[in-house]
Amino acid sequence: MSIRESGAPIYTSIGNRSNTVPNPALAVQSNDGKQDYRPAYTLVDSNAERTGRQ
């Protein structure tokens, strides 16, 4: 069961705009061929949570 399914509160950590980029672990290609990103709660590897930080 995921945290989201358990109903537990979900918290996020937000970095500064100057040192944060979209997380490449969440990147997907949309139907029109553009880069898009899945929601953070769909991240499979929790170790990749901060890969968008520089």
TrEMBL record:
It comes from the Eukaryota. Gene3D superfamilies: HUPs. Signal peptide: none annotated. Coiled coil: none annotated. Keywords: ATP-binding, Nucleotide-binding, Nucleotidyltransferase, Transferase. Residues 13-32 have a biased composition (Polar residues). GO terms for biological process: FAD biosynthetic process. GO terms for molecular function: ATP binding; FMN adenylyltransferase activity. The keyword Glycosyltransferase does not apply. Residues 1-54 are annotated as: Disordered. This is Putative FAD synthase. The lineage of its organism: Eukaryota, Metazoa, Ecdysozoa, Arthropoda, Hexapoda.
